[in-house]
Design brief:
By secondary structure, the protein is an alpha+beta fold. 33% of the residues lie in helices and 15% in strands.
């Protein structure tokens, strides 16, 4: 049986933590941030954890990175 291809864009966006949870960066950090308050900008610097149901989808797309 052939190997399953890894979805490389997914590997770049999600990271596995020590307890096998997934984290990702918050969205909306690229541009047009000057009108936002400083509090909003600081909150966007933190990583967020991925929902457990969505994590299953990520694990399917990256079979060799998250086992």
């Amino acid at each position: 049986m052939p190997k399953i291809k890894t979805h490389k864009a997914t590997v770049k966006r999600f990271k596995k933590t020590g307890k096998n949870n997934l984290t990702q960066r918050k969205a909306g950090q690229d541009h047009f941030n000057s009108h936002e308050s400083g509090n909003t900008t600081r909150q966007k610097r933190k990583d967020i954890s991925v929902d457990k149901t969505f994590a299953k989808t990520v694990k399917i797309l990256t079979p060799y990175n998250y086992n």
